[in-house]
Specification:
Strand order of the largest sheet: 11-12-10-15-16-17
Number of strands: 17
Radius of gyration: 52 Å
Distance between the termini: 39 Å
Helix content: 40-55%
Structural class: alpha+beta
Largest sheet: 6 strands, mixed
């Protein structure tokens, strides 16, 4: 019950604090969302930047090796043939300049007859491209387009894995263009990956590459985890002469971990929300307390004159709205001044507090008791239900206030009370005169000798001593 009562008393500060907390939380949530979006963008930019560097190194390594086939193509086209010694000299010079090249082969009529270095690649001699499924389509496309075609990465018959750049060779004979065969360069994939520094990049990124035979997004994955393409990766295309590879990357710890805001950021936002709510609660509480103090008698805790004026307006509005009568009572204490003068203000204060307690105890919760100064009190009854109701209340209050008051051990005092009362609203009396009417009735009661009440308005207007 105490907790419920406390909550009721603090309802307004709690509502304001909750409202401020919601507003601040909404603002902080929006700022947090913007911060999260900004961090997402920054992480995506960083991933894209690192991918761009990987792509540049891959393209540099591929292009430097692939386009060396054009030198051999031009030499064969002009000489029609190439003996083994001459081929070995040219091939060695090419491989010395590009260490990623694993071997170089010549395939007159699509059958490999020359290969450098021979050692370790003997299994490739005699290979007929037209009989090898993994290379036939690339060779036919190269012949049809007269362009360099990149096949793979594929498993090599001599072991390992490589990317094969194949260039068809045509020459002029008797004013006719004739097909000679294929010049091929095999690029070792492991060497290419080292040149592109994929292992260093994977300290920051998860990488995958797909697009066997230059088929881009439609090709198979040949590096990394294929499921990476389902994780909303950043992607770039690695350009090949006959198509492209698709390079994909996500942060090494995944998007969720990389884009998650630091817990300190969230904690600060929460702290700001709680701080603003607390400040608002304290401010509202002090405002409510100050407002209450301005309308409350500090000694008795009863409403004061300011609050009485507000309550009178409320009661008049209620009576007019529901066509009922209320009553106003002015109470002035008898024999209080001698007690105050003889025993001091401390004893007088106890007497006033006791009077306040007795008035509240004798009245309904809907009634209002106010102290408007000194030893003067006002009682407002918002609804009189029967003809004798006001008289009964007046008599009960006079009797209660004339009872002895034990201020402290061995000190008991006794006072009386003069009560003037009137009904409201009066059709013939302005609202401002209602208090004056009750005040005049109180003086009539006091003139009778005190400890009496006088009702100045219908249904009865008489003087009663108790």
């Amino acid at each position: 019950m105490a907790l419920i009562s406390l909550i009721k008393r603090q309802a307004m500060p709690l509502k304001i604090a909750a409202g401020v907390a919601l507003i601040v939380f909404a603002i902080n949530s929006a700022l947090t969302e913007l911060a999260a979006q900004r961090k997402q963008e920054m992480v995506e930019q960083e991933v894209r930047y690192r991918l761009a560097n990987v792509r540049a190194r891959l393209e540099q390594g591929l292009n430097a090796s692939i386009f060396l086939t054009q030198g051999l193509d031009a030499h064969i086209a002009s000489h029609h043939e190439l003996d083994l010694r001459e081929f070995n000299v040219l091939a060695k010079a090419i491989m010395d300049s590009e260490p990623e090249i694993r071997n170089i082969g010549l395939a007159p009529n699509n059958v490999i007859e020359y290969i450098y270095p021979l050692e370790g690649n003997e299994a490739a001699l005699g290979l007929d491209y037209m009989r090898r499924d993994s290379q036939r389509d690339a060779v036919l496309s190269a012949i049809a387009s007269n362009q360099i075609m990149v096949a793979g990465p594929i498993k090599l018959i001599q072991g390992g894995e490589g990317v094969i750049a194949q260039k068809p060779v045509f020459y002029e004979a008797n004013e006719r263009r004739r097909y000679w065969g294929i010049v091929s360069i095999v690029i070792d994939t492991e060497s290419l990956y080292r040149r592109a520094r994929l292992s260093q990049a994977e300290q920051h990124l998860q990488l995958s590459i797909r697009g066997v035979d230059g088929k881009g997004p439609d090709g198979k994955t040949f590096y990394g985890d294929p499921s990476l393409f389902e994780q909303n990766p950043q992607t770039l295309l690695v350009t090949l002469p006959n198509g492209n590879w698709q390079l994909a990357g996500v942060p090494v710890a995944g998007w969720a971990a990389a884009t998650q805001l630091h817990w300190m950021f969230i904690a600060v936002n929460l702290l700001i929300t709680l701080s603003m709510a607390s400040i608002s609660f304290v401010a509202a509480h002090h405002y409510q307390a100050a407002k209450a103090m301005a309308r409350q008698d500090p000694l008795t805790g009863l409403p004061n004159r300011l609050r009485f004026d507000e309550k009178l307006a409320e009661s008049l509005d209620y009576c007019r709205r529901y066509s009922v009568r209320g009553a106003l009572m002015v109470i002035d204490l008898d024999k209080f001044k001698p007690i105050n003068d003889r025993h001091g203000h401390t004893v007088g204060d106890v007497v006033l507090q006791t009077v306040a307690e007795r008035l509240v105890k004798e009245l309904r919760r809907s009634d209002t008791v106010c102290r408007i100064g000194g030893d003067e009190f006002i009682v407002m009854l918002p609804h009189i239900t029967n003809e004798d109701g006001l008289e009964v209340v007046c008599q009960k209050l006079v009797e209660a206030l004339t009872q002895p008051i034990e201020v402290k051990k061995n000190l008991v005092v006794q006072i009386g009370a003069s009560i003037g009362a009137c009904y409201f609203p009066h059709t013939h009396m302005p609202e401002r005169d209602i208090l004056a009417q009750a005040d005049a009735a109180m003086y009539r009661a006091k003139q009778s000798g005190g400890s009496a009440y006088y009702i100045s308005a219908p249904p009865k207007a008489n003087l009663k001593a108790v």
